[in-house]
Automatic annotation (TrEMBL):
Domain P-type ATPase N-terminal: 87-138
Species name: Taphrina deformans (strain PYCC 5710 / ATCC 11124 / CBS 356.35 / IMI 108563 / JCM 9778 / NBRC 8474)
Catalytic residues identified in the record: D428 (4-aspartylphosphate intermediate)
Entry similarity comment: Belongs to the cation transport ATPase (P-type) (TC 3.A.3) family. Type IV subfamily.
Protein name as catalogued: Phospholipid-transporting ATPase
SUPFAM superfamilies per the UniProt record, alphabetical: Calcium ATPase, transduction domain A, Calcium ATPase, transmembrane domain M, HAD-like, Metal cation-transporting ATPase, ATP-binding domain N
Residues at which ATP binds: D428, K429, T430, E517, F559, K582, R611, T692, G693, D694, R774, K780, N803, D804
Positions with a binding annotation for Mg(2+): D428, T430, D800, D804
């Protein structure tokens, strides 16, 4: 049997000489395993290699040859012996889960690399290392080492804790025990191998990718939950291979002489191609598809026990292949601060060189320059990143605990300030602007339409199927027949499964992947044709008269985003074989018979904002069905191009000249408050794009009803572009109408992206609203990247489905909605919200606070470091340019920590106006996008304040006490601390208790520690009145003018928010 597997594999994938070797081996009847075959393959490969060698290609050494051979087999179809992982001829990855980021050897190097790639930390590392050199040492070594070590220690502890959590989670998963058929003891998940037969019980995690062979249910069906894999909440139906399902027991299964041929590992969770091959008198081959596979990390949901064959383990599983590190998102504020820090570094170097030049260059001038650089190192404060990171944690906590936006989750806590800088919002439609709560609103059967009020007539027509009366007029009988045919098609053509209530056998609910299908099946139940039971072979429908129809399911052709249609072949009790198909009008128009009303009615429904489906049927003769089935089965076992071959057979035999039964219109209701939310965001200066896979007319109608397009606003539509001249003419037309809304389909969008990308994005980014229809997930992500790259502005994307994940990850801010399509978008996003309307407060309130607080905090921390450096400069100048430290040892450490940290960090709790005003005046958000809170203007303003206050503190101190001693240090340092506390108080807009506590606690802490600072202060002098009045004068001269300028400016030119808040 293993020989047969290898024969199939090599005949399709190896060279001619290898195939010849295989054929020679296949004729031999004596070999018992693959050893001889391996030798033959080695010989054939040697001949191939010799040929290459003769033409100048160097033959690889044996070990390298084995290495590359193993790499190659991972990229080719694999043949797996049934029943024992130890029988496999090739080795496969371990099934052990490892999400750990570090190990014992690389933890410290990796953490240090991650930290020192930031300019702040690298700068201070160089400063700290310089203190090892005796000639550069200034003060105590701990003064420079301790702050850096503290920051690194906190980071290492946090990284270690996170990694230990990951390891604990991995260890728990790896230690789960599973029953491997044929083994006496339970096997840990990490020890499971390719080829093992695994028994899994209800509510257990699937440990690897399995081919489903048997279930306890007679029909061979099992349901799995995939929410941990793809975020989708609905149950997925999986079916066992018919041959293995019909075996007597698991022992019989273990005794099978067979093998499975499977695709190479791939990312797609919706595609799988394989076969089960059983060696008998004639080798039996059974096709395998994605419907027969249970992906790892899913959960068995149905109440049954299953047996599966392991085909992929560890890094080869779909879950592992689809797990990738998200793009590391860095906030614009961090980039701005990094640029400012480089400016400060340049200023520090210039100051150092200037001071040395004033003193005169000596032979060791470079040592003096370096010592000055070290003295002025506080200009770039090491605590800046710590303060900002802690502040972001505060903002994230406030967002998650805001009672007005419950269930909001911050998944990326490093970029909350980006919420205050958004200028473009790209939104999905279904499930994001709408509820994804579908309801069938309209039915059209060619000459008659049925809407809400007329649905009762549909029930009468369905009920009339059992009526013996034929007295109705002919026209009515024809309509009745068409309606019944359409309702039957809708009740049959779907992938919905009924689930019975354990407490009440008469009641049931439905499991469905598509909200559209669920809405339609519920509607057919209301009009008198209910789905009551379904397995993979049969379907039972109950009519309103309690009679049941049993249909045999012959084949199902599932919906895909590529085909945009779904079909089913069934046989009824009378033996009539019928093919039903439903799908989008763009594809069904070429499949159904010619008609004169489909296009017009589809347009009418789309203009009403309804999602349309076209339904058709075709009755097959027995001979036609058998011919189709034979070709379809042949295509289904092909290992190359299976999907294409199967689709070709369906198109040839089924998908042509279908009888057009009718058209359905399903309404997707708008989310609560989505209209005022969109208008609010537009007033905030945010340009909104809607990216949807829906039709142009439907999307346009939803945009109008949702007020995405303003009343009276011109809507320009561009569709089906195929000509360069027309494409440019459309752009030229829009250049004169930049206040209009653009509606463009996916085909035209791709045309512009491929041929006229630059002029297209330049024009569309000026428009207030753009609606892109028939978009693919890739196009959504491309649009987000294009806007970011062209405008250099912040882009937010919001969506609710798996098709929105790429767009969300491509944005500066990704927002996911937990919807009916699952949690995939929510899990991939930076922020998760339950409803679209929560964006209002998330952006204009929390975004405002996060950005303005971070900007103020960053500039104040820079001010705190710059002012003490200015003091040092003045001291150096008055000390004949000697590079001697003014504040040494604990004074430097305490200044940046105990004596100023709490008041400065309390600025992270400040707010410039109430949330009610921010939500009442969304126009205030526009000033945030301009970046005025942290700009070169504000930065150099703080530099000027720092320079003035640093000079004032030192010069006034030296005037009042003209001596460089500990008394001067005590006056200047105390004045410096009080100056910073007063400056914090002047910056506060709204006082909260914690701010007051921080101020009081800092003052008390300073007073309490003064007795321990005898090495730096003259403690006896600090008890005299002279110390206090001198300190008071120094502080008043330092703070007074600053306070006066700030007050006058606020009164003469108050900011807009101050006018509204009444604090001007």
């Amino acid at each position: 049997m293993r020989k047969a597997a290898a024969k199939y594999y090599l005949m399709h994938n190896r060279s001619t000489s290898q195939s010849v070797a295989l054929q020679r081996y296949g004729q031999s009847q004596d070999a018992s395993d693959l050893d001889e075959l391996d030798n033959l393959l080695d010989d054939s490969e040697s001949r191939d290699s010799s040929k290459k060698h003769a033409t100048g290609t160097r033959k690889r050494p044996f070990l390298w040859r084995q290495y590359f051979r193993r790499s190659e087999h991972c990229l080719q179809p694999r043949n797996i012996v049934l029943g024992n992982g130890n029988k496999q001829s090739l080795s496969y990855p371990s099934n052990a889960i490892s999400n750990a980021k570090y190990n014992a050897f690389n933890f410290i190097p990796l953490v240090l690399f991650e930290q020192f790639k930031f300019f702040f930390n690298l700068y201070f590392l160089l400063v700290a290392l310089s203190q090892i050199i005796p000639s550069l040492r200034i003060g105590f070594l701990s003064t420079y080492i301790a702050p850096l070590a503290f920051v690194l220690l906190v980071t290492m502890l946090q990284e270690a804790a996170d990694d230990l959590t990951r390891r604990k989670r991995d260890s728990d998963a790896n230690a789960e025990h599973y029953d491997v058929v044929g083994r006496a003891v339970m096997t840990k998940a990490k020890d499971i191998k390719v080829g093992d037969l695994i028994k899994v019980h209800k509510d257990r995690r699937i440990p690897a990718d399995l081919v489903l062979l048997r279930t306890e249910e007679d029909d061979g069906e099992a349901f799995i939950r995939t929410d941990q894999l793809d975020g989708e909440t609905d149950w997925k139906l999986k079916t066992a291979c018919s041959y293995t399902q019909n075996l007597v027991n698991e022992t019989d299964l273990l005794g099978q002489d067979g093998f499975v041929i499977a695709d190479p590992p791939a990312k797609s969770m919706h595609e799988f191609t394989g076969t089960i091959n059983i060696k008998a008198r004639n080798t039996l081959t059974f096709p395998l598809s994605a419907d027969n596979v249970l992906w790892g990390n899913t959960v068995l949901a149905s109440g049954t026990t299953i047996i599966g064959l392991v085909v992929y383990t560890g890094v080869d599983t779909r879950q592992s292949l689809n797990t990738s590190a998200a793009r590391a998102k860095a906030g614009l504020l961090e980039q701005e601060i990094n640029n400012l820090s480089k400016i400060l570094c340049g200023l520090t170097l210039l100051l150092s060189v200037a001071l040395v030049s004033f003193h005169g260059f000596s032979q060791t001038w470079y040592i003096d320059v370096t010592r000055f650089l070290i003295l002025f190192s506080t200009i770039i404060p090491i605590s800046l990143r710590v303060n900002l990171d802690l502040g972001k944690n505060v903002y994230a906590h406030q967002i998650e605990h805001d009672i007005d936006i419950p269930e909001t989750i911050v998944r990326t806590s490093t970029i909350p300030e980006e919420l205050g800088r958004i200028e473009y919002l790209l939104s999905d439609k279904t499930g994001t602007l709408t509820k994804n709560d579908m309801e069938l609103k309209k039915l059209h059967v060619g000459t008659v339409s049925f809407t809400r009020e007329a649905m009762s007539e549909v029930s009468e027509y369905v009920h009339a199927v059992t009526s013996k009366s034929n007295n109705a007029p002919r026209t009515k009988r024809e309509i009745s027949g068409r309606v019944r045919d359409l309702v039957m098609a809708l009740a049959v053509c779907h992938n919905v499964t009924p689930t019975a209530d354990l407490d009440d056998e008469e009641s049931h609910s439905y499991q469905a992947a598509s909200p559209d299908e669920l809405a339609i099946v519920k509607w057919t139940e209301r009009v008198g044709l209910a789905l009551i039971a379904r397995d993979r072979k049969t379907m039972k429908l109950k009519r309103s008269d309690h009679e049941t129809n049993t249909l045999e399911i012959l084949s199902i052709f599932p919906f895909t985003s590529e085909t945009k249609r779904m079909g089913i072949l069934v046989r009824d009790d009378a033996g009539v074989i019928t093919f039903y198909e439903k799908g989008a009008d763009v594809v069904m128009a070429g499949i159904v018979a010619a008609n004169d009303w489909l296009e017009e009615e589809c347009g009418n429904m789309a203009r009403e904002g309804l999602r349309t489906l076209v339904i058709g049927k075709k009755v097959l003769s027995k001979i036609a069905y058998e011919r189709f089935q034979k070709e379809y089965e042949s295509a289904s076992v092909s290992m190359t191009g299976r999907e294409r071959l199967m689709a070709d057979v369906v198109a040839q035999h089924l998908e042509h000249n279908l009888e057009l039964l009718g058209l359905t219109g399903v309404e997707d209701k708008l989310q609560d408050s989505v209209k005022p939310a969109l208008e609010f965001l537009r007033n905030a200066g945010i340009k909104i794009w809607m990216l949807t896979g829906d039709k142009v007319e439907t999307a346009k109608c939803i945009a109008i009803s949702a007020k995405l397009v303003k009343r009276g606003q011109y809507i320009h539509t561009v569709t089906k572009l195929v000509d360069d001249r027309i494409a440019m003419a459309e752009l030229e037309f829009l250049q004169n109408k930049t206040e209009s809304a653009l509606v463009i389909d996916g085909e035209s969008l791709q045309y512009y992206l491929d041929k006229f990308q630059q002029p297209f994005v330049e024009l569309t980014t000026q428009l207030p609203t753009v609606i892109c229809c028939r978009c693919t997930p890739t196009q959504k992500a491309d649009v987000a990247r294009l806007i970011r790259a062209h405008t250099k502005r912040r882009v937010a994307c919001i969506g609710d489905g798996g098709n929105d994940v790429s767009m969300i990850q491509a944005a500066d801010i990704g927002v996911g909605i937990v919807g009916k399509e699952g949690k995939q978008a929510s899990l991939a996003a930076d922020f998760s919200v339950p409803e679209f309307r929560y964006l209002m407060k998330l952006l204009v309130w929390h975004g405002r606070n996060s950005y303005k607080r971070s900007a103020k905090l960053a500039q104040f921390v820079i001010h705190r470091g710059l002012i003490i450096s200015i003091c040092q400069i003045v001291f150096s100048v008055t000390s004949k340019f000697a590079p001697i430290a003014l504040f040494q040892g604990w004074l430097m450490v305490g200044y940046a920590t105990l004596y100023t940290m709490m008041p400065v960090f309390s600025l992270a709790l400040d707010k410039d106006l109430d949330d009610s005003l921010a939500l009442l005046y969304p126009e205030l958000y526009k000033e945030l996008t301009e970046g005025k809170s942290l700009s070169y203007k504000t930065f150099f303003g703080w530099v000027a304040i720092s320079v003035y206050q640093g000079i004032a503190i030192m010069f006034v101190t030296l005037i009042l006490h003209n001596d460089h001693d500990s008394k001067m240090v005590a006056i200047s340092f105390t004045a410096l601390i009080i100056n910073e506390l007063i400056m914090v108080a002047l910056e506060v807009n709204t006082w909260v208790p914690l701010m007051i506590y921080a101020q009081v606690a800092t003052i008390l802490l300073y007073i309490a520690t003064v007795p321990f600072l005898g090495d730096y202060f003259d403690l006896a002098y600090m008890k005299t009145a002279g110390f206090y009045w001198r300190t008071a004068i120094v502080t008043a001269i330092s703070v007074g003018p600053t306070w006066a300028v700030k007050s006058i400016r606020r009164r003469l030119r108050p900011p807009d928010y101050a006018k509204l808040a009444g604090t001007a």
